[in-house]
Amino acid sequence: MVAVSFLLVYTDNGSSLFFYLAMDHIFSIHCLIIFTYFSFPIRIIIFSFSVIENDNAKNTVLYNLNTKN
Prior knowledge:
Elements: E1 2-10, E2 16-21, H1 25-37, E3 43-51, E4 58-65
Antiparallel strand pairs: 1-2, 1-3, 3-4
């Protein structure tokens, strides 16, 4: 199974940071939790695409974590 995640991070002042991760889903989410723990409150949107090699099925998962009003 191949997991590719695109991370788009918005800060309070309107600037954005773009991250690219090609790793396991759970490990990616854990990295985000650690990142938000050591940083100020930010808005994180994760676009995660999973491709199963044998079945050739594609799953799209959208996470919206730590959304600040």
